[in-house]
Design goal:
The complex is a heterodimer of chains A (389) and B (82).
Chain A lengths: L9 E7 L6 E2 L4 E7 L2 E6 L4 E6 L5 E4 L5 E4 L28 E2 L14 H10 L17 H5 L22 H18 L2 E9 L1 H12 L9 H15 L5 E4 L2 E4 L5 E3 L1 E2 L5 E2 L2 E2 L7 H17 L2 E2 L8 E5 L18 E5 L3 E7 L2 E15 L5 H15 L6
Parallel strand pairs in A: 4-16, 12-17, 17-18
Antiparallel strand pairs in A: 1-3, 1-6, 2-5, 3-4, 5-7, 7-8, 9-20, 10-11, 12-15, 13-14, 18-20, 19-20
Chain B lengths: L2 H15 L14 H4 L4 H15 L14 H13 L1
Helix pairs in contact in B: 1-3, 1-4
The chains are: A alpha+beta (389), B mainly alpha (82).
Chain lengths: 389, 82
């Protein structure tokens, strides 16, 4: 069971996407795990043959529990553990430990894409999602598709938990946010800085860029914010990494988390891998894809809990300034308030310009305000040259 | 394409983006962004979907004119007639 965030202690293996005997390729999605962050697709880290699944579907196990064994295919155990069964609590295979991975892989007909709520409801009611037509984004099966299906016997062994509004277990997500934020405020000595950035150049450039393009190819200001921040983080590596028991470790790449507000409540901050190296159109596509998958299910394990720093952008319905709380084990949270027209001194004149307050919450154990200030100024100077982003 | 058909198309796309909105009870005059909590990415996704389905492009400079479902339908209707 992979750790999908510093605050995660256990997860539920929702379904296997592979069966013993299947050959899997590195990067293939082999299982779906339900967490407080919703249903996450788990990818396999090596190629091989699924020899044995240790954990049955619908089973909650602690982080670190082996889920399956991947090997050469010589010792295939075809029996799948029954639903709800796990090995001895967190057992680890003894002697000559075969490579054990935290996941499994899909059989030939890929299982249907479905929202976490739909998967859960389907399981509770014994509905085969494969038999349904999805009406959600990208043909995904959503809750309403199940409402039309006659009820099968409810599963007696799985009492409903919490409020599943919008596809997530809201109570579980709230608990998970509470745990992470409590730890942040208890352990991390935050310092806060903010500055106002004139977005005249960025807005003009963006309007020009979008003018002749169809909606599908347009950029949002948020993409510029992400790119500028990712580049600035690459230049200030003391803000990009993880602080763990052995102290701070810089990350080699900027995997920028993006706090995504979920319509049903709560939030999740999946990572945009290598954000500083992505061209703006690609970054925008990836951002849209992440938001979509965060809201409908289908985030991958490599995207959650791996960010090296996080951006929160309040958008146009927000307020001027956000004072972020760092998500451990990260050491920086960069906030963008809403873009508004404001009076600004430009040269010797007063001008009304689109502007945004950019803020930084950073870990004082790792760096000081002097560095943080230079970092924010770097974001500003990146945003003044949008054509170079 | 008449207004009623346009309305059905818009509501279908809106509900794909924001499945929690009760489209039966939608108020055509309410401000979409505020009342139904659509952010800039939701709006862009909606316009992309409408562009694909109706072939009507809404330039960014016209965004400001579209606050409510009614504004959006007025706009689409005028464009679709041409």
């Amino acid at each position: 069971m992979p750790s999908l965030g510093a605050d995660m202690e256990a997860g539920t293996l929702a379904e296997w996407r592979v069966a013993p005997g299947d050959r899997v390729e590195k990067g293939q999605v082999i299982a779906v795990v339900e967490t407080a962050k919703g249903a996450i697709d788990v990818e396999v880290f090596e190629s091989g043959v699924v020899e044995e699944c240790y954990v049955g579907p619908n089973t909650r196990v602690p982080v670190g529990t082996p889920l399956a064994r991947i090997g050469s295919g010589e010792r295939v155990v075809t029996d799948l553990p029954a639903a709800g069964t796990a090995p001895e609590p967190a057992t680890v295979p003894e002697a000559e430990p075969p490579p054990t991975v935290s996941a499994s892989a899909p059989p030939a007909p890929a299982p249907p894409r479905a929202s976490p709520a739909a998967r859960r409801r389907g399981r509770e009611r014994g509905i085969d999602l494969g038999a349904l037509a999805g009406s959600g984004p990208g043909g995904a099966i959503v809750l309403r598709d199940l409402e039309r299906t006659p009820l099968a016997e409810p599963r007696p062994d799985r009492p409903p938990v919490g409020d599943r509004g919008g596809g997530f277990d809201r109570e579980a997500m709230r608990r998970s946010i509470a745990a992470a934020m409590t730890r942040a405020k208890r352990e991390i000595p935050h310092y806060y800085l903010a500055t106002t950035v004139d977005l005249h150049a960025a807005e003009r450039w963006l309007a020009d860029y979008n003018r002749e393009r169809p909606p599908a190819a347009r950029l949002l200001m948020a993409a510029l914010f992400m790119k500028a921040t990712a580049r600035a983080l690459a230049r200030y590596p003391d803000l990009n990494g993880h602080y763990q028991a052995q102290g701070f470790r810089r990350a080699e790449r900027v995997d920028l988390g993006m706090a995504i507000h979920l319509r049903a409540g709560g939030l999740i901050a999946p990572a945009l891998r290598g954000a500083g190296e992505l061209a703006l159109p690609e970054l925008m596509d990836r951002l849209q894809d992440l938001v979509q998958r965060a809201r409908t299910g289908g985030l991958r394990a490599a995207e959650v809990g791996t960010a090296t720093a996080t951006v929160t952008a309040l958008g146009e319905r927000g307020v001027d300034t956000v004072f972020g709380v760092i998500h451990p084990p990260q050491v920086a949270m960069i906030g963008f308030g809403c873009v508004r027209r404001r009076p600004l001194a430009v040269d010797d004149m007063l001008a009304v310009r689109p502007a945004v307050d950019v803020s930084l919450a950073a870990d004082h154990r790792v760096c000081d305000g002097h560095l943080g200030a230079r970092f924010l100024n770097e974001i500003e100077s990146q945003l003044q040259r949008p054509e170079a982003l | 394409m008449n207004r009623e058909t346009l309305r059905v198309v818009v509501l279908e796309e809106l509900s794909a983006i924001a499945p929690d909105i009760d489209i039966e009870a939608i108020d055509d005059r309410a401000r979409l962004r505020d009342e139904y909590d659509l952010d800039s990415m939701d709006v862009l996704n909606l316009l992309t979907a409408l562009h694909q389905r109706l072939g009507v492009d809404i330039p960014e400079t016209d965004y400001a004119r579209m606050h409510s479902l009614q504004d959006l339908l007025d706009y689409l209707e005028s464009k679709a007639e041409r």
